Amino acid sequence: MSESLFSRLGGQDAVNTAVDIFYRKMLMDERVSHFFDDIDMDQQILKQKGFLTMVFGGPNHYSGKSMREGHAHLLKRGLNDMHVDIVIEHLGATLKELGVTTEDIKQVAAIANSVRDDVLGR
Ligand code: HEM
Q1: What is the CATH number of domain 5-120?
Q2: What 3-state DSSP class applies to 40?
Q3: pLDDT in tens, 4-22
Q4: What are φ and ψ of residue 100, in 5° steps?
Q5: CA distances from residue 52 to 68, 76, 119 in whole angstroms, order as listed
Q6: Residue nearest to atom 10 of ligand 1 (CA)
Q7: Whose CA is nearest to atom 5 of ligand 1?
Q8: Organism's domain of life (predicted)?
Q9: Cβ count within 10 A of residue 53
């Protein structure tokens, strides 16, 4: 299968839609919404679209911070494995709603897991 995960998911429009739905879920979930209290969500959504496009094998326009740098200050506020699990849960549910295959959802979860230690500063 030579097609990238990015194109299998449906390209830029699908990734953009997925990120919008994903953050709606995150902000409705009180286990994680407090981390985003002071965050400019328009900027956050833009960065996340760029980042996910890159890790899914689409065009690389991501110019944000590394995962380690981007989350370091959240560790002091208690960011831990449970929160990363919740991110993966909401991302998976979002992709499922959009009709993405179980196999591709597993691949996305694996990508998210591959940055877990960086996000958590380990
Ligand atoms: C799979 C794991 C994750 C990925 C791929 C990811 C991705 C990103 C990206 C691309 C940014 C932008 C970095 C920048 O500012 O340049 C970011 C920032 C941020 N992330 Fe994550 N993230 C992950 C896990 C989490 C978790 C578990 C939480 C909390 C529940 C979280 C909360 C935040 C917040 C609040 C910011 C904004 C920080 C700020 O601007 O001060 N992230 N993340």
Answers
A1: 1.10.490.10
A2: coil
A3: 999 999 999 999 999 999 9
A4: -75, 145
A5: 16, 25, 15
A6: 48
A7: 112
A8: Bacteria
A9: 21
pLDDT at 114: 94
Q: Which atom of ligand 1 is nearest to the CA of 38?
A: 41
- Alpha carbon distance 50, 44 (integer Å): 10
Contact at 8 Å (CB) between 15 and 94?
A: no
Q: Are 19 and 49 in contact (CB under 8 A)?
A: yes
71 labelled binding-site residue: yes
CA-CA distance, 95 to 27, in Å (whole number)? 17
Which of 26, 32, 54, 74, when mutated, tests ligand 1's pocket best, judged by the most ligand atoms within 8 Å of its CB? 74
What residue owns the CA closest to ligand 1's atom 7?
48
pTM given for the model: 0.95
